[in-house]
Specification:
Elements: H1 17-25, H2 31-44, H3 62-70, H4 78-85, H5 89-94, H6 97-104, E1 113-116, E2 125-129, E3 135-139, E4 146-149, H7 150-167, H8 172-194, H9 198-203, E5 206-207, H10 208-215, H11 221-234, H12 239-246, E6 247-250, E7 253-256, E8 263-265, H13 266-270, H14 272-290, H15 295-301, E9 305-312, E10 323-329, E11 336-343, H16 350-353, H17 361-372, E12 381-385, E13 394-400, H18 415-436, H19 439-446, H20 451-480
Antiparallel strand pairs: 1-4, 2-3, 3-5, 6-7, 8-9, 9-10, 10-11, 11-13, 12-13
Helix pairs in contact: 2-19, 7-8, 7-18, 7-20, 8-18, 8-19, 8-20
């Protein structure tokens, strides 16, 4: 397979689906050829070329990009999104995946493709339950996933570390050490994965109990105790706990509580007279969704009955898209299952790396998640809604709303804690990339030194500066009345 060389920028032609198909059908390269591939890319796109960030002369206005996204979102929820992004520069960064995708497209770009997360900031990693009921640490958000350059994910992750460290008022040296530790762990892990057999890489996972046993003794007892407390709390976050918070019993039946505008039950959105008709439609959609599950999971889901449905606001970047929760009951009222259905639109990377091979965006998300995660939710599937409440066709993916899910409290971290957390994220991202791309070529490109790591730290610091400027533009846009933000929600 001939190696395409050179640095790609946003004006280069996007790879076509036909080209991707041809590449997959090519004769596999030997290990030596893959090593040489990485070295060859390095000669054309030096590791040092990733350092720094200079906005392009024709850089799009960040507020224009946010408003562009808002056009397809629920108008009444968009001000909540802006309000959440106003909380801090890090909160802004969480909602600015589209802005950064536009910027990454102008940076030096290798020709080594992986399944990208597309939004690999540190808050999109966390713990959740495996099907074997073990607590695992992994990436947990794939709304923007698409095949793309592996370095885009590590740049977004490293920059998020610097932005978060600044929000916590850490010293500059601490910011740089945290980002460098994150990238160094990615580097070390990728080189290790490059020397492993395919199945060994595929089976690799980070189980939290084993992690605590191995590294717990290295930390102060107070930190270990606090971590154990948070993990214990995560294990209580399941459908039963969600039921106690989100639902109530009315006239002998269970219904989702109205907490508008953050949680709006279907009966409020469509009125009591149309509720039965919409439930019939939902039952039909449920059958279509079940067909995307494995037969054993499908059989399990068929043991549950839909009881209520509501629109729910979640996250920061996702606010304004259509997110739903479905309350289902199994053998009795003490056997609940909450499913979350999230709208899936085109990835923010699509403009720069080409369209997904899947016409259903929900399937794009699910496929990317199954490729990148070591283990996944047993009810992960997708569905297309031919005509929703607004009459438009929309794609969704579904998963459990709560299943031992937990995420790091960034605001509570000390520098050493954020550094160790960055290492977890770095290893996890490397594992995901090693599963889905040419891990040997990437490891060869990285080499044995730390040149790439220092270049990415320099990039992360420069991009954190850009993120601060963009955040201030959002503040100014709100102050001028250009956009409306609702805070405190």
């Amino acid at each position: 397979m001939e190696l395409q060389r050179g640095v790609w920028h946003h004006h280069h032609p996007m790879p076509t689906l036909a080209k991707r198909a041809r590449e997959k059908q090519a004769v596999p390269l030997t290990v030596a050829e893959r090593v040489e591939r990485g070295k060859s890319v390095r000669s054309e796109v030096p590791r040092s070329s990733h350092a720094g960030f200079e906005p392009a002369p024709d850089r799009a206005d960040p507020i224009d990009l946010l408003e562009e996204q808002a056009r397809t979102r629920l108008p009444e929820l968009v001000p909540i999104r802006y309000g959440r992004m106003l909380v801090s520069p890090f909160a802004f960064y969480r909602g600015a995946a589209k802005i950064m995708a536009n910027d990454l497209a102008t940076t030096p770009r290798s020709e080594i493709t992986v399944q990208c997360c597309g939004d690999a900031h540190l808050s999109n990693f966390g713990v959740f339950a495996s099907p074997e009921r073990r607590l695992v640490f992994d990436i947990n958000d794939f709304d923007e996933t698409l095949p793309g350059p592996w370095e885009w994910d590590i740049k977004r992750l490293a920059a998020s570390m610097v932005v978060a460290a600044r929000d916590c008022a850490f010293a500059v040296k601490e910011q740089e050490r945290i980002a460098l530790a994150t990238v160094a762990q990615y580097h070390t892990a990728m080189r290790a994965f490059a020397g492993q057999e395919n199945l060994t890489v595929w089976y690799a996972r980070m189980e939290v109990d084993a992690l605590m046993d191995e590294f717990g003794p290295q930390f102060k007892r107070r930190i270990v105790k606090q971590t154990e407390k948070e993990l214990a709390k995560a294990r209580t976050r399941d459908s039963m706990s969600a039921l106690s918070k989100l639902a109530r019993r009315v006239d002998g039946s269970i219904e989702i509580v109205d907490e508008s505008p953050l949680i709006v039950p279907l009966r409020v959105l469509v009125g009591a007279d149309q509720r039965d008709e919409w439930f019939r439609r939902l039952e039909q959609l449920s059958r279509a969704y079940r067909r995307t599950l494995e037969p054993d999971r499908r059989a399990l889901l068929e043991e549950f009955t839909l009881k209520d449905f509501a629109r729910k606001v979640v996250g920061v970047g996702s606010v304004g898209t259509r997110e739903w929760i479905a309350l289902m009951l199994g053998r009795d009222s003490k056997d609940p299952l909450f499913l979350q259905l999230k709208e899936a639109d085109a990835s923010v990377l699509e403009e720069f790396v080409g369209r997904s091979q899947f016409t259903n965006q929900g399937r794009r998300v699910v496929t990317g998640q199954r490729l990148m995660q070591a283990v996944g939710d047993i009810f992960l599937g997708w569905v297309r809604v031919p005509a929703g409440l607004d009459g438009d066709r929309r794609d969704f993916y579904a998963r459990q709303l709560k299943d031992w899910k937990g995420s790091a409290e960034i605001e509570q971290m000390v520098p050493k804690g954020m550094e160790e957390y960055g290492k977890l994220c770095g290893w996890t991202l490397a594992r995901a990339h090693a599963r889905t791309g040419d891990r040997i070529a990437i490891a060869s490109y990285l080499g044995s030194g730390d040149q790439f790591g220092h270049a990415i730290v320099d990039f992360a610091s420069a991009y954190a500066d850009q993120n601060q400027r963009d955040y201030e533009r959002l503040v100014a846009a709100v102050d001028s009345g250009r956009i409306i933000a609702r805070t405190g929600l």
